[in-house]
């Protein structure tokens, strides 16, 4: 087949007056009057370049007959905000040439490895919004089908760092943690950050919001303090307290990654190279020198098989070595939710219970007192304390637990909450719990064989989580527990009656608690 | 990795009042007030189902704070038109489940063959707008990388027919022709259709508009008659005249194909299975029993190598056999443009010159009298006359040429033009030619070694084709011609001075005529 066109001959420019339209489309869209569009030979869904005040941005074209007049350009409200363009301003429109990285995407589709420069070009043009959703999806698909080698992965991670914002704290040691996700209630970040910061280790933690889960760390910590921190604020918080828990989406650490993730999510594609570059690029961008990675495995987790978990861990180590990040991977039990509270408010209660020092009045027995998340969190924090030399090998977890028992971790947590703009004196009783409750009781007795992460997430989301901070679930059992008929298996909690009944229906359709069966199958 | 979710639990419905917004986005978009969107737990870019008057359609969600109030749903003008919804109507909104075909797209990515049912499901959900651009791009990419077998291709073609409109003429024989494209000026359809119709062969021809070329057959024939024919009108025209030349885009022969083609174009991906299904599915949908396929090969053509052309031809034969279409593929010379006029108006002049009977007053020597397109067109028409038994083997082209010489083809052409709503008495002198001309002359002498199809298209487009019907180029030379300095190589023709100068710049950047070089390279 003949090659594609990288030249489009000379270009003309067109001056247009901006009109802001109160619509949000989640991507940069400009509306041209259809006669203007014809004159420029651009069509719906084409890309066009906007030049203004020394900047240049690529937008996607929609057209209008009347709403946008000739000589005007309509901008969607979210685009105008992101591009920092005001109504009435004049901008210059220029046709954009075919992105050169399309050739490299084709090359990857043709089973060839990409050079560092070619990967950089794909990342750069993605950041500049020059590639369409379909073109990016083709890149992700090609990386998934044909594989993405370690060298390509390292190049992708470095390109992400180069095209995003970086945090240069100028301090040491800087640590970070990561979990590949998939386990409900797994709020170890909120245990690890205050412990490490209390021990003198810097941990500028950025976390995600929920996509399909009941709550992401950013959604949960937001109950305690604002998590939308511009990078300069984040820097100040970390230099002051040594830690933070911020929403990664508010910082442009790896803008290309947000676009790639959106595409990966819809087809549940996790091409390993893209996954690793995404994670490790962001760690590199915050200056992490030490990293602990949580890889939960087991039934209902993202990785079900232990060998797959180990292979993933090995790739993590190889890529992070090239990026000069000392990394330890922990393969953990991910077959059940961690802890008993699911949903932003309930998870905060559980974390604060876990961090409460011995003998504290705040200590609550609710949600098992937070013991399960505390145990996992201190094991992980201890691992980093050992890596950075703040604890002898083998005693990190104990030292971490000691920082909790003595209240140092809770003090640090309050300091971080305050520094991020939250109420440093927050009490467990202040935290939101929805007032609509429904307890699901066991109809039959038996031993619990499985509590399904996905069903738990689905039910909690139906109840309103993560948007409704007081919504979610309280689990009253875990795998191995013996149940008698009438025992409460779990409670659904909601801020609205409608959402509660929606969540109840969801729980009936997808029961999250499974009891052991004596006869598993039958062959006749 | 764990599996994706195909269940989302129970669903709620929401009643909304429609507000039409004067914006065209080329896909079905609905704007929800952001509070309503929150209540429904839908986000920007999610899909949602609209139910109204017994119909159900899937739309993509944008949000608005003020333009669309709570209780309203904003519809883009083109969506409202396509969905046949009026402002003020009430519609019911329902959350949509995850499309089941995502699983099959994943399966294709995992190098497995898809069954007929799985392919049908992908096609059906694409037609229903349930798949995003990125999801479809992943399917196309997977088909390109992992291949798409003959059985899959046949299943795809059949699914396209099943999900689109079909033409049931109830007559015989029905023939069709197809060209894989890439050659400028290749207007053989306008020669073949009137010849076959005059010979008593039905040819319900649907053609495309230009994407990157200077003019598609539909763009060109539109100079003579309307080409936007609803399927019922097309049926009437064909039953009356035996032929037609309509724009395929106005008929839903294979709605899924338009979406697939859009994605294939951006990355210049032609996964063979998708290409064949797309072409042959549409032929099947119009009831074609006989088909001739033009596969131009050579430098600058879509297929450069003869063996690639033959392999493509073999696949054409295999798939069309399964679809019960008798097919002949012609490998033709595609290294140069066909004919001398490029652009809608000029191509019409050339075709009418070609069809003019011997001794006719209308006969013009302009553009070589249309001899080049006439010769190719009669060879192809003759091929079909032989296949359907209207000409002895070996004499089809001569019989076709005879129908032209005697004026039968021109009479039929006028009958078709009239039946489609054009002026049956149209004269060559009525046809549009832009009044701004620029002749490009040879600076050096020599033999023409190549006239580049892509450069020709680019220049003609810059001059305003295909939108400006009088715009384009006249070629004054072809490969093999001897040129002396000062000879006119080509003329650029435009309807506007600005576009003319834009086209001149394009021609300077991409000179379309190449002279033979004595020294091709130098190694020192």
3D structure, described in words:
The structure is a homodimer of 524-residue chains. With 524 residues, chain A is of the alpha/beta class. Chain A folds into four domains: 83 residues, Barwin-like endoglucanases, CATH 2.40.40.20; 47 residues, no CATH class; 245 residues, Pyrimidine Nucleoside Phosphorylase, Chain A, domain 2, CATH 3.40.1030.10; 80 residues, Aldehyde Oxidoreductase, domain 3 (Alpha-Beta Complex). Helices cover 39% and strands 19% of the residues of chain A. Chain A is built from 18 helices and 18 strands. Chain A has a six-stranded mixed β-barrel. In chain A, strands 12-15-17-13 form a four-stranded antiparallel sheet. In chain A, helix 6 packs across helix 12 and helix 14 crosses helix 15. The longest helix of chain A is centred in the middle third of the chain and has 17 residues. The N terminus of chain A is likely disordered. The interface between A and B is large, with 76 and 76 residues.
Short description:
The structure is a homodimer of 524-residue chains. Chain A is α/β, with parallel strands linked by helices and 524 residues long. Chain A has helices at 34-39, 77-83, 101-109, 116-127, 133-146, 150-162, 189-198, 217-221, 231-241, 255-266, 272-285, 306-322, 344-355, 371-387, 396-405, 408-419, 453-462, 497-509, and strands at 13-21, 29-33, 47-52, 55-64, 72-76, 90-95, 175-179, 203-207, 243-247, 290-297, 326-333, 341-342, 436-441, 446-451, 472-475, 482-483, 488-494, 513-515.
């Amino acid at each position: 087949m003949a090659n594609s066109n990288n030249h489009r001959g000379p270009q003309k420019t067109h001056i247009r007056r901006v009109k802001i339209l109160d619509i949000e489309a989640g991507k940069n869209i400009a509306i041209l009057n259809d006669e203007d569009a014809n004159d420029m030979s651009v069509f719906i869904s084409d890309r066009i370049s906007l030049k203004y005040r020394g900047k240049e941005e690529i937008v996607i074209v929609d057209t209008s007959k009347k709403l946008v007049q000739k000589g005007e350009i309509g901008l969607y409200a979210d685009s105008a905000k992101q591009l920092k363009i005001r109504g009435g301003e004049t901008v210059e429109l220029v046709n954009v040439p075919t992105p050169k990285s399309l050739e490299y995407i084709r090359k990857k589709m043709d089973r060839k490895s990409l050079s560092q420069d070619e990967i950089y070009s794909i990342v750069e043009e993605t950041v500049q919004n020059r590639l369409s959703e379909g073109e990016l999806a083709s890149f992700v698909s090609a990386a998934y089908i044909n594989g993405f080698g370690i060298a390509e992965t390292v190049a992708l991670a470095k390109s992400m760092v180069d095209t995003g914002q970086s945090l240069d704290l100028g301090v040491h040691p800087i640590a970070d943690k990561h979990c590949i996700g998939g386990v409900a209630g797994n709020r170890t970040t909120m245990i690890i950050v205050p412990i490490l910061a209390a021990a003198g280790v810097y941990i500028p933690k950025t976390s995600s919001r929920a996509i399909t889960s009941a709550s992401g760390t950013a959604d949960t910590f937001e109950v305690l303090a604002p998590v939308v921190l511009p990078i300069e604020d984040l820097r100040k918080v970390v230099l002051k307290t040594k830690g933070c828990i911020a929403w990664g989406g508010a910082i442009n650490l790896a803008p290309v990654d947000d676009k790639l993730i959106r595409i990966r999510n819809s087809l549940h594609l996790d091409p390993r190279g893209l996954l690793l570059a995404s994670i490790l690029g962001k760690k590199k961008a915050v200056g992490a020198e030490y990293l602990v990675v949580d890889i939960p495995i087991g039934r209902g987790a993202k990785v079900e098989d232990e060998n797959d978990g180990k292979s993933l861990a090995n790739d993590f180590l190889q890529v992070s070595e090239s990026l000069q990040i000392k990394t330890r991977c922990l393969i953990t039990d991910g077959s059940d939710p961690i802890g008993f509270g699911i949903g932003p408010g309930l998870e905060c209660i559980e974390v604060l219970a876990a961090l409460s020092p011995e003998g504290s009045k705040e200590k609550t027995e609710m949600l098992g007192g937070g013991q399960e998340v505390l145990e996992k969190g201190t094991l992980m924090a201890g691992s980093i304390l050992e890596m950075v030399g703040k604890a002898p090998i083998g005693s990190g977890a104990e030292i971490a637990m000691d920082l909790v028992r003595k209240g140092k971790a809770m003090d640090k947590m309050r300091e971080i909450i305050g520094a991020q703009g939250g109420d440093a004196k927050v009490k467990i009783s202040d935290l939101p719990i929805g007032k609509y409750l429904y307890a699901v009781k066991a109809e039959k007795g038996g031993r619990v064989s499985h509590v399904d992460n996905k069903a738990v997430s689905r039910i909690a989301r139906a109840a309103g989580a993560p948007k409704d901070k007081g919504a979610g679930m309280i689990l009253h059992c875990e795998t191995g527990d013996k149940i008698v008929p009438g025992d409460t298996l779990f409670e659904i909690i909601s801020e609205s009656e409608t959402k509660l009944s929606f969540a109840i229906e969801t729980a009936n359709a997808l029961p999250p608690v499974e009891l052991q069966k004596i006869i598993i199958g039958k062959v006749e």
